[in-house]
User: Fold this.
Amino acid sequence: MRLPLLALLARGPAHGYELKQDLEQLLGSAYPQPNVGQVYVTLGRLEKQGLIEGEAVEQSSRPNKKVYHLTDDGRAALRTWFSEPEDEPRVRDEFFMKLALAPRTGLADQLALINQQRRQYLNTMRSLSKLAAAEDRNNRIAHLLIEGAMLHLQADLDWLERCQEELEELNELEELE
Assistant:
């Protein structure tokens, strides 16, 4: 959450609750919503790191609020973040680790694991479809987020199918021996 908050502050000063609302509005209901406490803890850490500065602003009918703005170091951190591609280590997949280790433990069947994971992906896809239907049509960013998640899930489903085919072929070969 650090860098997204910095990115929101790049357009101008804001307080924590505004930043939380901006994230929610931008990303829609498909993205896990941060709680305001998490936002303020992160802002405190960013301030200690010198990436943002906070200033207390008096309010007449409410408690004072702290408004944050980006520092030069914060702007440099953002430039670095935007310039570096993301490297998602899909080889460290928790499900695949279960699948690979199941035969060695005798505690789980590989095909049952695949079927269970397939059901989970399909349920998630259904939930995402409902979210897409309920999401504001004008929020293109939220719809792109949902579409990306669904495309990843479809690729994961295709991969599960490939795993099942490979395991069934291995089982047939073992039976022939």
User: Anything to note?
Assistant: The two ends are 54 Å apart (CA to CA). The helical segments are 2-9, 16-27, 36-48, 72-83, 94-105, 110-134, 140-176. The chain has a mean pLDDT of 89. The CA atoms of residues 76 and 114 lie 44 Å apart.
